[in-house]
Structure formats: C-alpha cells, structure tokens
Amino acid sequence: MWLREEHVNGDAAGWRNKAPNIFNESSTCTFFQLIAYFAKRMISKETLEKNHVMQRADDQHLPSFHCSHEGCNYQNVIAFTYRRDGMLVGCKYRSVKKRFWQMKGAEKIFYGVDDIKDADEIIIVEGEVDKLSMNEVGLCNCVSVPNGAPPSVSDKETSIEEDVGFQYLWKEKEYMEKASRIILATDGDIPGQALAKELARRVGIERCWQVCWPKKDEFSFCNDANEVLVNLGADALREAVKNAECYQMKKDN
Predict the structure, then answer these.
(1) pLDDT tens digits along 22-67
(2) Rg (CA), the chain
(3) Strands 4-6 and 100-103
(4) Which are the contacts of 22, defined by CB distance < 8 A and separation ≥ 6?
(5) pLDDT the model gives residue 25
(6) What is the overall mean pLDDT for the chain?
(7) What pTM, to 2 d.p., does this model score?
(8) Half-sphere exposure (CA, 13 Å, Cβ side) for 177?
(9) Which residues lie closer than 8 Å to 248 by C-beta, 6 or more apart?
(10) How many CB atoms lie within 10 A of CB 151?
(11) What is the per-residue burial (b if ≥16 Cβ within 10 Å, else e) of 164-194?
(12) CB–CB of 244/251 below 8 Å?
C-alpha cells in the first residue's frame, strides 16, 4: 500500500523534535491498548521495545485506538520509528484501519536497517508488522521496505539516480552486495510479487530466494509473514523462510 504524505514545515531535523516519546508514561492506559493490539498479532512487548515501536497520542483528526478510560480523550496512532545507527531519521504512522502516512522531509530507508549491517543473509518483507513478526520468531536479519508494493512491475529502465522509488535500496548497496543471499518475503498478492521482481532485478536475480507462503486452511494461502505467525505459529514461519526457493529457478518454471 502506498503512503499518503502530509506536509510538515521544516526539514527532518525539525520534525524529529516533535516525535512521540516511547510508551509515554502519561498515557499508560493507551500503552496497554497498544500491547493488546499487537498481542492479537502474536507480537510481544519485547519485540515492540526492541524495534522502538511508539504510540502517538493526540486529539487531532486521526482515528485509531479510542481510549475508554475515564477522563482520557486521546486518539492513538501506532508510530514505527525509522532509525539509522540508532538515530531517528523518519517515522511512519498507522491507524488500526491500515491507514498509513508519514511526514515529508523524513529520510526513506529500510525499516530496521541497523539489523542487517553484518548479515550474511538478508530477509526483505513488505511491511513493518511483517518485520516485527520475523523478529518475534528469532529471524533478526530482516528489513521492511518503507513504501509498500507497486501495483505492477514497471518496464521502465532508469539510472540509479532516477530510480526514486527504490533509493532506500540503493542506499544500502554495500549491505546488499555483502550478503550471500537475499530472501524475498513479500506479500503473496500481485503487488507483493511485483515488488519481489523489482527488488530481484536490482540486487541480482541469481542472488535471490523467494518465500512461498503456506496454506492457511483448506481454501486459501497465507499472504504474508504475520498471517503465518497468527494462523500457523512460529515454527511454520521459520520453516517457510528456511524453504525459500531460488528465485531464478522459480521464475523459469
């Protein structure tokens, strides 16, 4: 899903000063709502804290968690903080209705980029919750793309400088080249497969493996990492990644 960006006066350094505090103690009631929300998605408090997942509480026009505690008028929004070398460089917000937005001026980087500095294998997923899901089962060499997936594969050839939508990938060229394998764990739908193809042709198809999501039930397949975790459990998610198929062979079949 593509982001809707909202204009904020000033550069990235300016809006960083407005970033929410991690688990603001003045909003303890809403903190527990955040924990409960992610618990339903099988993601623990420890994983949230490790990834500096925040909660923005304000009384503006952005609906999300509606606190039922007496005297609390906050409407709360999940904030996924983007960091490089531990420093905050961007923030992406999400409501429980899967509405996404982020501030202009923020640097576009992989979510969790610090986790792949020394990784021999790199797992790339399509969303922050899928990255958290991988971490939850012990797969810490994982990043998420910041912009979701394109609707389809583009046939346009562009230079690195003009490849605006994938600058987050080119910025980490050193990490990508150092890794022996790139495991593409994008969503199983058409946009997710388009994203996998776009990533593979940039980092080298011969270096890529692709995760095939298992069946969720008799009639359907899981679409992403979190669906596997929620419906089939941690072992099934680890197994799906372990059994990733060579992208070139999958493409040729």
Answers:
(1) 334 333 345 677 888 899 999 999 999 999 998 775 544 444 444 4
(2) 18
(3) parallel
(4) 49, 52, 54
(5) 34
(6) 82
(7) 0.83
(8) 5
(9) 205, 206, 208
(10) 9
(11) eebbbbebbeebbeebeebbbbbbbeebbbb
(12) no
